[in-house]
């Protein structure tokens, strides 16, 4: 399956980056590993099934053949100890990439990540660095259910010492992965499985997408929509819906959640006067809480008017397996558009946007 | 035949640890050290026997009861005391304290206050050392030290399985003092057969039940040489020992009645510091005692005279550049 790229992808190829072609998100990741492993012999990649015939949805295929079994290898499940192993190797000057096929499994790694990985550089006063990348995949659709669908980026944003990135397109997937590998800190690299098959324009050459710099994916004057991970795709579809009724939404992808680029978000919110955050996660104590609180603090400190604020995210329930319930668990382009519409037109002004054409969500099939 | 030189050398290291910690216990009520301390008094022979055969570029990994291994591996004593005092000149600028001692320049990995946490980290360091040896030609060896409580964490079994699978150059050393805080081993293990359990992973195991510093050193010497020269790891060593003082703090807590006084007295009979002193002539013992006292006094003076970190230090090293 190869879903066509959204029109926005083409718009975002910078003029100076020649030599691009359309590839899938998952292939962009693979290219990042290949280029970085070629550049730096200290980079290695490991995790359950990274060297099997499926190669983590294709993102690691062929890497063991190219770089050998010392640098690309599967591990026992043992998420807790393998995280510690990665941290130890990172302290010794290597640059491990540790792969989890679901973000839910990272709950088994929390002691190592929070108590050791995040703190080692600080607690040992700079005597060690932990240049670690933790790849982690959010599942959705085909009944992923309560324990294969969680988006826990907020847990990691809470911890000093960790960085958290969640690129939403192929270009940023490659550039963020290269930046993550070169970063001297633990980076939680959040991938959404529904993004894997989406094409985007990606340069052949190696490049970094810096953390702490949000992307304005679509300019507009009426309402700012900040969307996270897969919700970027929904927000961009919502933007099209809104356009059809004369509302120009500005869509922003933070790309990195920590560090967080509030400047870009606030510049937009000042312009539109309306800030809607759509997280690919629960709201309580989440990325949306952080973004809106900081918006409030910034406005208070500078005594400027507060934009209208709203947020959307997962229903505050465990993710259900059955499709009809799963459909109402997530925000979607129509609910996002309706929320933005009400923010622009006024409270109580309801609108039901048309149904989308078939999306990557409908196209996704299991069983994996 | 043991040379007097070796006996004096091991005696001095053990005595330095003992006297350092007893001095710390003495100082503790003054609140110069405003932080938990977990003392190794009575357990010194393990740290010294384990660390003595290691080269400077070999690695030791610790628990929060880490003073003994830090000193035995050659960690800077003045920086250690300053760290305990919370001073800027401490081995971690005061950010670590007693439970997180570190000295990477002497191959001492930072300790953790969470039981078992350093076992996988040391294992990862050994993985890196195995990779590095393929280009450097020199196999550096990692030693992971933990207590009997540490073997009850899931990550211990996960780590030794991985180490056995990858044949890593690591020696796991369990200091078995039969106590997890105040809870005896009998309340925690169905069977007292740790080495047997570990052996089922395909790991060579050794058990030393009397804390004999020479036996520990000899076993470690062979293990280090074996791994250094292409032998397949990991290796597991269980050393029985006894914690003389309370779990945390400076006190002898035998009056708390949670453990047997007879056991304590038995272990005091085996005290390696007394044993080695008796093997040396009086002049040598006196000279070593004087040297140790001078080193500790110098460390204490250094710590006392050092400044505290400035407020700006709060935000240094949150992220690495």
Characteristics:
heterodimer; A: 368 residues; alpha/beta; Rossmann fold; 2 domains; 14 helices; 14 strands; 36% helix; globular; disordered N terminus; B: 321 residues; five-stranded parallel beta sheet; 11 helices; 44% helix
Tertiary shape of chain A: globular
Total of helices of chain A: 14
Quick one: CATH superfamily of chain B? Thiamin diphosphate (ThDP)-binding fold, Pyr/PP domains
Structural class of chain B: alpha/beta
**How do the strands of the widest beta sheet of chain B line up side by side?**
1-2-3-7-6
* CATH architecture classification name of chain B: 3-Layer(aba) Sandwich
Total E-strand runs of chain A: 14
Structural class of chain A: alpha/beta
- Report the β-strand fraction of chain A as a percent range: 15-25%
Instruction: Please compute the radius of gyration of chain A using only Cα atoms.
Output: 20 Å
Query: What is the CATH T-level topology of the largest domain in chain A?
Result: Rossmann fold
> What does the radius of gyration of chain B come to?
19 Å
Task: Report the helical percentage of chain B.
Answer: 40-55%
Which of globular, elongated, flat, extended, rod-shaped describes the shape of chain B?
Answer: globular
Tell me the number of structural domains of chain A: 2
Give the total of beta strands of chain B: 7
Greatest interface and its participating residue counts: A-B, 42 and 42 residues
- Measured as a percent range, the helix fraction of chain A is 25-40%
For this structure, the quaternary state is heterodimer
How would a crystallographer describe the biggest sheet of chain A?
7 strands, mixed
């Amino acid at each position: 399956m190869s879903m066509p790229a959204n029109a926005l992808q083409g718009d975002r190829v910078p003029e100076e980056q020649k030599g691009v072609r359309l590839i899938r998100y998952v292939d962009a990741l693979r290219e990042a590993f290949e280029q970085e492993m070629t550049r730096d012999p200290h980079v290695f990649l490991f995790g359950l099934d990274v060297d099997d015939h499926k190669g983590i949805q294709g993102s690691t295929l062929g890497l063991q053949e190219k770089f050998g079994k010392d640098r690309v290898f599967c591990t026992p499940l043992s998420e807790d100890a393998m995280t510690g192993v990665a941290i130890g190797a990172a302290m010794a000057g290597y640059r491990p990439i540790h792969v989890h096929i679901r973000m839910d499994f990272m709950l088994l790694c929390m002691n190592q990540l929070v108590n050791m990985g995040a703190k080692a550089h600080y607690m040992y006063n700079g005597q060690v660095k932990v240049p670690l990348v933790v790849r982690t995949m959010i599942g959705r659709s085909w009944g992923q259910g309560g324990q294969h669908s969680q988006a826990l980026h907020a847990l990691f944003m809470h911890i000093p010492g960790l960085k958290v990135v969640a690129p939403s397109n192929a270009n940023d997937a490659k550039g963020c992965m290269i930046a993550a590998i070169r970063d001297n800190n633990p980076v939680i690299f959040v991938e959404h499985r529904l993004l894997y098959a989406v094409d985007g324009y990606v340069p052949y050459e190696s490049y970094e997408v810096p953390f702490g710099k949000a992307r304005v994916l679509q300019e507009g004057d009426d309402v700012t929509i900040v969307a996270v991970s897969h919700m970027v795709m929904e927000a961009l579809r919502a933007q099209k819906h809104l356009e059809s009724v004369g509302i120009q939404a500005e869509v922003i992808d933070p790309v990195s959640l920590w560090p967080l680029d509030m400047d870009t978000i606030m510049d937009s919110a000042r312009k539109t006067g309306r800030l809607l955050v759509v997280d690919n996660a629960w709201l309580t104590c989440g990325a949306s809480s952080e973004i809106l609180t900081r918006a409030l603090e910034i406005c208070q400190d500078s005594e400027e008017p507060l934009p209208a604020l709203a947020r959307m995210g997962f229903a505050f329930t465990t993710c259900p397996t059955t499709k009809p319930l799963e459909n109402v668990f997530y925000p979607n382009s129509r609910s996002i558009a309706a929320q933005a519409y009400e923010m622009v037109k006024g409270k109580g002004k309801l609108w039901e946007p048309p149904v989308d054409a078939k999306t990557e969500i409908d196209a996704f099939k299991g069983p994996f | 035949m043991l040379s007097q030189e070796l006996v004096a050398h091991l005696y001095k290291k053990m005595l330095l640890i003992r006297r350092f910690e007893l001095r710390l216990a003495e100082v503790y009520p003054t609140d110069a050290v405003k932080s938990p301390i977990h003392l190794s008094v009575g357990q010194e022979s393990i740290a010294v026997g384990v660390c003595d055969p290691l080269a400077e570029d070999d690695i030791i990994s610790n628990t929060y009861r880490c003073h003994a291994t830090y000193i035995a591996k050659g960690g800077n004593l003045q920086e250690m005391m300053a760290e305990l005092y919370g001073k800027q000149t401490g081995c971690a600028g005061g950010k670590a304290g007693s439970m997180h001692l570190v000295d990477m320049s002497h191959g001492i990995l930072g300790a953790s206050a969470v039981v078992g946490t350093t076992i996988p980290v040391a294992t990862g360091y050994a993985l890196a050392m195995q990779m590095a040896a393929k280009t450097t030609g020199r196999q550096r060896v990692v030693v992971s030290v933990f207590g009997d409580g540490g073997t009850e964490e899931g990550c211990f079994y996960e780590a030794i399985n991985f180490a056995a699978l990858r044949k890593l150059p690591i020696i796991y050393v369990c200091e078995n003092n039969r106590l997890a805080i105040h809870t005896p081993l009998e309340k925690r293990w169905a069977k007292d057969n740790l080495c047997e359990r570990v052996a089922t992973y395909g790991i060579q195991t050794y058990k030393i039940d009397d804390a004999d510093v020479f036996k520990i050193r000899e076993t470690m010497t062979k293990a280090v040489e074996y791994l250094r020269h292409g032998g397949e790891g990991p290796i597991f060593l269980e050393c029985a020992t006894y914690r003389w003082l309370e779990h945390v703090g400076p006190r002898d807590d035998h009056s708390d009645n949670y453990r047997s006084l007879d056991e304590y007295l038995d272990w005091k009979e085996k005290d390696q510091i007394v044993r080695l002193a008796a093997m040396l002539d009086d002049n040598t013992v006196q000279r070593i005692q004087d040297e140790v006292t001078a080193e500790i006094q110098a460390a204490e003076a250094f710590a006392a005279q050092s400044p505290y970190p400035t407020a700006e230090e709060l935000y240094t090293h949150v992220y690495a550049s």
